[in-house]
Amino acid sequence: MMTVEIKIIENPLSDWKLGDPCSICNRMFSYTEAEYVAVVYVDEERDFICGDCLKKGPEAIKKAAQKRAQEIRDEIRLRLKEAELLEKIASGDIVYPWDDQEKFSKCAN
């Protein structure tokens, strides 16, 4: 089983005015003036998590991470379908409606 370690470290980004999405819940959170940040380490990778997720504990973090992973997979599937359609359009012969100028000029912009 893989070890996932969460550490609370001094905030290296306390003067950073922007935020970042939590890697678990994807909610934007701000580092501004926070004394500490929570970092999740998996193998050689690391990412920040918000204090709300941290406070929920390990089981809630695992459940939320699985849910977010599925959301990302679903988004990717939709984008792949869109890409496949665009590839078909790019590689196909397009029959263009030049002959119906009245309808052509009234198409939504």
UniProtKB/TrEMBL annotation:
It comes from the Bacteria. This is Uncharacterized protein.
